[in-house]
């Protein structure tokens, strides 16, 4: 019988299926059902710095700035209190690791928040810095440095593992991952998914695109996990985006991931997807003669043979061999 246990960010997981931060994980009741369905870990719905500041800005009174400051502080503390309750209740109802999540774009608020998140019992903290860089006067490298600065600030105040969930809008994710590892990150998740824009040509207005990921989206995390795990091999990786079927779990681990974060597949197939994926992985491992995850993790990462990277040049050359 295959053993599906894995280690991610220093946490022992009973299997590699992590439910990612979303509406699926915004209540202790939902999280209990996800754990009962077999999830290996749960990332709670994110606490958004931008949302807190936006709500405070909407209530700001230009005539009474002192009152506005009070409202901002109240909103911040109220949102944080709700989030700490979610952590505590989820920990009480689930026997699997509970990972808190914060979505931020500055390094000012999170030292205060992260300390309380740890005290509430979170097993780890996942940080998202999801933003497009489109400034004309942009200084190359400043966005990457913001990640490192936030990590340093948070690490000063907490002992639990810190995970970074990165967007795919980096020229060289490997260099950033190396910097995050050097500054104490325990794991990275590749990749966070931007909301997809679309345009309604009849109403002539912007609309939301497809909110769910699709199987073809997995190619990007497979490539970069395959490359990064062969070069920065002391940090753990999880794949996110395109983990749409049970086969995707095996592919991600073969590329070098310790776990996968799943969202769209559960939305579309209910919690039953978790059991289906676990049964598939177990049966595949038995069929291939693998007793544990570590025996095939990274087996197909980017082996650099005579300077030819299998996730960069080799596949490109194979296409031309078919001509």
Automatic annotation (TrEMBL):
Residues 81-271 form the Dihydroorotate dehydrogenase catalytic domain. It comes from the Bacteria. Coiled coil: none annotated. Keywords: Flavoprotein, FMN, Oxidoreductase, Pyrimidine biosynthesis. SUPFAM superfamilies: FMN-linked oxidoreductases. GO terms for molecular function: dihydroorotate dehydrogenase activity; dihydropyrimidine dehydrogenase (NAD+) activity; NADP binding; uracil binding. It catalyses: 5,6-dihydrothymine + NAD(+) = thymine + NADH + H(+); 5,6-dihydrouracil + NAD(+) = uracil + NADH + H(+). Its EC number is 1.3.1.1. It holds the Pfam family DHO_dh. It is an enzyme of class 1 (oxidoreductase). GO terms for biological process: 'de novo' UMP biosynthetic process; thymine catabolic process; uracil catabolic process. The keyword Flavoprotein applies. Its cofactor is FMN. Pathway: Pyrimidine metabolism; UMP biosynthesis via de novo pathway. GO terms for cellular component: cytoplasm. Involved in pyrimidine base degradation. Catalyzes physiologically the reduction of uracil to 5,6-dihydrouracil (DHU) by using NADH as a specific cosubstrate. It also catalyzes the reverse reaction and the reduction of thymine to 5,6-dihydrothymine (DHT). Heterotetramer of 2 PreA and 2 PreT subunits. This is dihydrouracil dehydrogenase (NAD(+)). It comes from Bacteroides reticulotermitis.
């Amino acid at each position: 019988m295959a053993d599906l246990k894995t280690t991610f960010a220093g946490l022992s997981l009973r299997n590699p299926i992590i439910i990612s931060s979303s509406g699926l994980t915004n209540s202790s009741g939902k999280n209990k059902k996800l754990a009962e369905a077999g999830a290996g870990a749960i990332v709670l719905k994110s606490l958004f710095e931008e949302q807190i500041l936006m709500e405070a800005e909407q209530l700001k009174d230009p005539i009474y700035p002192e009152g506005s400051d009070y409202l901002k502080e109240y909103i911040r503390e109220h949102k944080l209190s709700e989030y700490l309750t979610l952590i505590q209740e989820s920990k009480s109802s689930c026997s699997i690791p509970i990972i808190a999540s914060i979505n931020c774009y500055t390094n000012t608020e999170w030292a205060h928040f992260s300390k309380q998140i740890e005290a509430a019992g979170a097993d780890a903290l996942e940080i998202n810095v999801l933003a497009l860089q489109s400034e004309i006067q942009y200084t190359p490298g400043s966005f990457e440095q913001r990640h490192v600065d936030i990590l340093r600030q948070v690490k000063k105040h907490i002992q639990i593992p810190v995970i970074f969930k990165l967007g795919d809008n980096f020229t060289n994710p490997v260099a950033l991952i190396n910097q995050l590892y050097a500054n104490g990150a325990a794991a990275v998740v590749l990749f966070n998914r931007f909301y997809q824009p679309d345009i309604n040509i009849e109403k002539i207005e912007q609309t939301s695109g497809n909110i769910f990921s699709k199987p073809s989206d997995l190619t990007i995390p497979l490539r970069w996990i395959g490359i990064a795990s062969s070069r920065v091999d002391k940090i753990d990786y999880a794949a996110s985006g395109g983990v749409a079927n049970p086969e995707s779990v095996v592919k991600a681990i073969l590329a070098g991931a310790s776990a996968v974060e799943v969202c769209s597949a559960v939305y579309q197939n209910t919690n039953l997807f978790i059991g289906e994926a676990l049964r598939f992985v177990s049966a595949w491992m038995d069929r291939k003669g693998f007793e544990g995850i570590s025996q095939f993790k990274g087996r197909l990462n980017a082996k650099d043979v005579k300077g030819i990277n299998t996730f960069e040049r080799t596949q490109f050359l194979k296409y031309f061999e078919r001509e």
